């Protein structure tokens, strides 16, 4: 039995407290949960497949989609990564800055940098894997309003429960929006990519105004 680090209810309550759903007057509304104003990320240091270490400064100058996952994930992660790979060219067409994806590994026991490099490399050069040990990973993931579970001590063959939402970070390096996953009975929870594409275009346009 895996132990949840953060209860889903607690995460939902925290999100309600810090995120405002904005319709911006006469502007076209989004289905994403939008930070208004965008929120700065707490300081962090993570190992990366693209550099020895990355921190908040490495999120600046680009739009970044942050997604928690792990290389042994059987369903949500490969599905979402493949969908994002197909979607990125469309997002790039409407953005004035590069659009990147960071896969935040929530399996520090098995996902080393080599494994993450091989995994993210399959999806393309715009995908970067980042990792840390639990003591540093936990506050970073929690600060994003996301969650993950850890295996019981000594367990080696396990699944990691984790959030399926995608966090959007703007070129200033601030949290801009959250795209929540759809939960449909009998299907894996994933973010609706049509909604993400539409909402991203709206948010990128507003950001440039």
Automatic annotation (TrEMBL):
> Which cysteines are disulphide-bonded?
73-77
Q: Which family does it belong to?
A: Belongs to the SCO1/2 family.
Database matches in CDD domains:
SCO
Instruction: Give the record's keywords alphabetically.
Output: Copper, Disulfide bond, Metal-binding
Checking InterPro entries in the record gives: SCO1/SenC, Thioredoxin-like_sf, Thioredoxin_domain
Sample GO molecular function, one term: metal ion binding
Name this polypeptide is given: Protein SCO1/2
Sorted alphabetically, which Pfam families does this protein's record hold? SCO1-SenC
Coiled-coil stretches noted in the UniProt entry, renumbered to this chain = none
Q: Does the keyword Metal-binding apply?
A: yes
Which SUPFAM superfamilies does the entry mention?
Answer: Thioredoxin-like (SSF52833)
Span of domain Thioredoxin: 35-205
Q: Binding of Cu cation: at which residues? A: 73, 77, 162
